[in-house]
Amino acid sequence: MKIEITDLTFKCIIGILDFERVKKQKVVINISFEYEYQKDYFIDYSEVSNLVKTIMKKKKFLLLEDALLIIQKKLNKTYKITKLKIKISKPDILKDCIVSLSC
């Protein structure tokens, strides 16, 4: 079974520059993962979405890389995921492009 959660959008503190640490910035996260579906075991995608939002709003990350690794570690620990792909973007940080990173 494959689940995709796209355009999970919210604001949080993330960045290394002083101005990035004052105001919350828009962050967009896309997650896709595979797992073995069984009648007695399924993954609630709204639960995954809320878990990611909670992680991002609770912590203040310096780097996108830090946020990505924390999310990856928490999802793998919480669920029986076989394949996981995460993409995190800060669409408003640079005037003429979107900065993103994925694993």
What does the secondary structure layout of this molecule look like, with pairings?
Elements lengths: L1 E11 L12 E11 L9 H14 L5 H15 L2 E14 L2 E6 L1
Helix pairs in contact: 1-2
Bin the strand percentage. 35-45%
Percent range of helical residues? 25-40%
Q: How are the strands ordered across the major sheet?
A: 1-2-3-4
Coarse shape: elongated
Helix-strand topology string:
EEHHEE
Largest β sheet strand count, sense and barrel closure? 4 strands, antiparallel
Residue runs with pLDDT of under 50 for 5 or more positions: none
Evaluate the radius of gyration. 14 Å
Total beta strand runs: 4
What does this protein look like?
By secondary structure, the protein is α+β, with helices and mostly antiparallel strands. It has 2 helices and 4 strands. It has helices at residues 45-58, 64-78; strands at 2-12, 25-35, 81-94, 97-102. Strands 1-2-3-4 form a 4-stranded antiparallel β-sheet, with helices on one face. Strand 3 and strand 4 form a beta hairpin. The longest helix has 15 residues, at 64-78. It is elongated. The two termini are 20 Å apart. The model has no long low-confidence stretch (mean pLDDT 89).
